[in-house]
């Protein structure tokens, strides 16, 4: 038995992941009061447009909206992967973009329920990229 996801369902699922991720980021920043670090800001710059672009693609039934979802999520995922490397100590601290005045990209504030926020971000971007790519399949009917 194989599970096939329709192109519309894949785009809708990608939009839901982007929407939930955007609300989660806003909740962490605005409700919990955690100031985002520099790399978190860059990831937000790619996640927030995904919600709008994929939502408009669904609204207008644009079968090619997934292209923008793939491009934006790959860029955001790359930043999340770099952030995760800094958090886990795999990347030298001398190229860390955090300043002494701002929040750190690697301290305990980068955890949500014990899970590193960059890991959650990377997983969200990867899922959105996969679902956006799945939405680009040609319709066989």
Structure description:
The mean pLDDT is 86. This protein has 4 helices and 2 strands. The longest helix has 25 residues, at 7-31. 62% of the residues lie in helices and 3% in strands. Strands 1-2 form a two-stranded antiparallel sheet. The chain has 141 residues and is mainly alpha-helical.
Number of discrete helical segments: 4
SS class: mainly alpha
Average pLDDT confidence is 86
What value does the Rg take, in angstroms? 16 Å
Helix content: 55-70%
Q: What are the low-pLDDT stretches, counting only 5+ consecutive residues below 50?
A: none
Strand fraction: under 5%
* Total beta strands: 2
Order of helices and strands: HHHEEH
Q: Nutshell version of this structure?
A:
This protein has 141 residues and is mainly α. The protein has helices at 7-31, 38-59, 65-87, 117-134, and strands at 111-112, 115-116. Strands 1-2 form a two-stranded antiparallel sheet.
């Amino acid at each position: 038995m194989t599970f096939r996801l329709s192109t519309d369902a894949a785009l809708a699922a990608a939009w839901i992941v982007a929407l939930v991720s955007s609300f989660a980021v806003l909740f962490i920043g605005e409700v919990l009061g955690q100031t985002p670090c520099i790399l978190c800001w860059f990831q937000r710059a790619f996640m927030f447009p995904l919600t709008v672009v994929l939502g408009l693609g669904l609204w207008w039934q644009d079968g090619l909206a997934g292209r923008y979802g793939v491009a934006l999520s790959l860029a955001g995922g790359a930043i999340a992967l770099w952030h995760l490397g800094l958090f886990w100590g795999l990347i030298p601290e001398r190229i860390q973009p955090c300043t002494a005045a701002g929040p750190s990209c690697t301290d305990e504030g980068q955890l949500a329920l014990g899970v590193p926020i960059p890991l959650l971000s990377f997983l969200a971007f990867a899922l959105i990229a996969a679902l956006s790519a799945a939405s680009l399949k040609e319709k066989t009917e």
